[in-house]
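Input (structure):
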């Protein structure tokens, strides 16, 4: 049994994808209103979807990230 939370963000592919998307959303500062936020989210998702290799790279890096967590007993090393 490994001693770290089962929802480790280091191992969660979706959390890593959301991190990339959120970086795009807040790249030029926070949204000023709901319409601005919608525009930023739509733009960030379009950017992520157009960068096909980003999601694939995150997915393909899972085994390496898992091994780092395993070797670090729950922490990235």
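Output (sequence):
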């Amino acid at each position: 049994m490994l001693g770290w939370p089962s929802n480790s963000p280091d191992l969660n592919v979706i959390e890593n994808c959301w991190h990339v998307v959120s970086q795009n959303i807040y790249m030029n500062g926070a949204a000023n209103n709901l319409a601005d936020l919608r525009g930023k989210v739509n733009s960030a998702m379009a950017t992520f979807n157009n960068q096909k290799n980003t999601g694939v790279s995150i997915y393909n890096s899972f085994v390496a990230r898992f091994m780092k967590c395993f070797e670090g007993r729950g922490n990235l090393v």
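Notes: DSSP finds four helices and no strands in the chain. The chain has a mean pLDDT of 83.
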